[in-house]
Amino acid sequence: MIFDNVSNCKKYEALHSDFEKAFSFLKRADLDSIAPGRYDIDGNDVYALVQEYETKSLADSIYEAHRKYIDIQYLIEGVENMGYSQIEKLNVLSPYNEENDFLTLSGEPRLILYNPREFFILFPEDAHMPGISHGEKGKIRKVVIKVRVK
């Protein structure tokens, strides 16, 4: 897991051959105004999901993890907590679904508060619990970029 500000994204581009494409999307001038939905960057190898939602309570949250894709989660607007843990420290709630690239887990939460212009890079070994409120529920605008593991 990596947590940083988008102003520092250049130093992470060497970690994966497609990270430069992903971070270029986050530097779009119209990022604040593009509609929610899927945006293909490089077909199914790199794509962005622009999302808007309301944060939820910790009690309503579960850990998730992916095997085929690395998540780059970038906050555009709002404030949320992200739960984080290594998969081996958690209990599997439902078996890995290969079609959806989704594994659900439970365990002790470790929360990290993040603000606009900050991002997480979440690798397959990183379980994460996004969208948790920081106090009151709030509106979030976020981009999740999916980068295929190579």
TrEMBL record:
Superkingdom field: Bacteria
Pfam families: DUF386
InterPro entries for this protein: NanQ/TabA/YiaL, NanQ/TabA/YiaL_sf
GO cellular component, one term: cytosol
Alphabetized NCBIfam families for the sequence: YhcH/YjgK/YiaL family protein
Name of the molecule in the record: YhcH/YjgK/YiaL family protein
UniProt organism field: Ruminiclostridium papyrosolvens C7
